[in-house]
Amino acid sequence: MPNAKIDAVQFFNDKYRELVNEKAGKADSERESFDGYIKRSLRLNSADDWGILCASMDVIDDSLLGIENFLRFGIDGPTKYGDMGEKYIRLYGALNATYLQQQAVISLFKISNTDSPKSAEERINSLLIRTIRHKIGAHAVDYENKHEDVTESFVPVRFTLGGMACSYYNNKTLQQETVNLQEAIAEHLDLMATLYATLYEKSIRTIYKSNPEKKELLMRNVFDGKAKLSGDIVVRSDCSDAIFTTLIISPLPE
What we know:
two-stranded antiparallel sheet; three-stranded antiparallel β-sheet; globular; alpha+beta
C-alpha cells in the first residue's frame, strides 16, 4: 500500500541530493580545490561537512527502506513463521531505523545552517518512537528518566509482540505500557518530511539567493513535497502546471 509520508520523505531527500550533486558537478579542480569549492558553494561550515552531508542522505535512504518494510509486514515479517527471534530483530531494527533517520536530519539541519536547529532537535526528542527506542532498543537497563531523576529498566512483553503492537514493562514502577508502532512511526515520518521541507527550502534560498529564476523553479519542489505529505497526487506537465488530487475511498454499500 502506498504511504504518502514515506513518499514525501523520499521526495525531499531525492530533491536535496539533486541540489547538492548539481553544485558538486560544477567543481573545477583547475580553479579551486573541491573542498574549498564545495564549502563555498553549499555554504557549509567546514569542508568536512561534505562527507557528513552525503552520509546523512544515504542513511535516510537506507533507513527508509527498512521502515517501509516494517510498515508492510510488521513485527511478524513477511514469512509469518512466528519466529520470536525474528520478531525481536524486526522490532529493534525498526526502532533504530527511525533513530538513524532522526540523527541524519539533525545533522543536515546543522550542516545547512537551517534556522532553529535546537527547536528541530527538541521536536524530534519529543517523538514517541524515539522514547520507545531509548527505553527498549538502546537503554533498556539504564534508561535515565530525567523527569523523575531516576534510572529505570524496561523489557518488551514477549507474548504481546505481533503486527504493530508492542507492550513493555517498567521494572521499577511495575507498570506496563502498550504502543501502536504504526501510529508512532507515522508521527515520525510526518515530522521528518516537515523538517526536511524546511531545510531544503532554506538551502534553496541561500544557495540561489542571486538566481531568482532557479530559486523559483526549485521552490516548486517544496510545494509539491508538502502536497505529497498531505496525500495529494502531484503531476507536473512540461509547462510546470500542477494537478493535485486527494483520493477519498468510500466503503462499498452492503
